[in-house]
Amino acid sequence: MKCPFCGYEESKVIDSRHSEDGASIRRRRECLSCQKRFTTYETVETLPLIVIKKDGSRQSFDRDKVTRSMVRACEKRRVTMAEMEAAALEIEQILQNSMEREVSSEYIGELVMERLKPLDEVAYIRFASVYRQFKDINTFMNELKKILAEK
């Protein structure tokens, strides 16, 4: 880390602390040349994630959008906001860890359904009915039969 005062490239860390939000680390450093102290912040670098929609258009990934869709599916159900936010964060982490910079909306939908199913089966069916665009009652019944067969 270059010293902001003299430009020397060697410094030692005097103190390290997590930031209030836990997203970065604050470090107090001392230049080994001029002995002046300065502060640096270390954060995880995240690459932008692009979602490829069904119509071929592209847009930035938005975890809040995933959370909102889960909230809609879980309306009047006993799923806490914390559970939905945790699921959305887990989905985002899976996508970031995949190292793919572009991901299909279909894949994100499948991840949401995987997270909703153990939380609440009714919310899962609600989401699946919109996501999979059930054309008729038979398609809907087939999905219900799959759930019942797993029990």
Please outline the helices and strands:
Blueprint lengths: L10 E8 L5 E8 L5 E7 L6 E3 L5 E3 L2 H11 L7 H17 L4 E3 H15 L1 H11 L5 H14 L1
Parallel strand pairs: 4-6
Antiparallel strand pairs: 1-2, 2-3, 4-5
Helix pairs in contact: 1-2, 1-4, 2-3, 3-4
Could you walk me through the main structural features you see in this protein, from its secondary elements to its overall organization?
This protein has 5 helices and 6 strands. It has 2 domains: 11-43; 50-150. With 151 residues, it is of the alpha+beta class. A 3-stranded antiparallel beta sheet has the order 1-2-3, with no helix packed on it. A 3-stranded mixed beta sheet has the order 5-4-6. Helix 1 (63-73) crosses helix 4 and helix 3 packs antiparallel against helix 4.
Choose one word for the global shape. Answer: elongated
Summing up helix and strand content along with how strands pair, one would put the structural category as alpha+beta
Strand order of the largest sheet: 1-2-3
Count of DSSP H/I helices: 5
Strand content: 15-25%
User: What integer value in Å does the Rg equal?
Assistant: 23 Å
Number of strands: 6
Residue-averaged pLDDT: 90
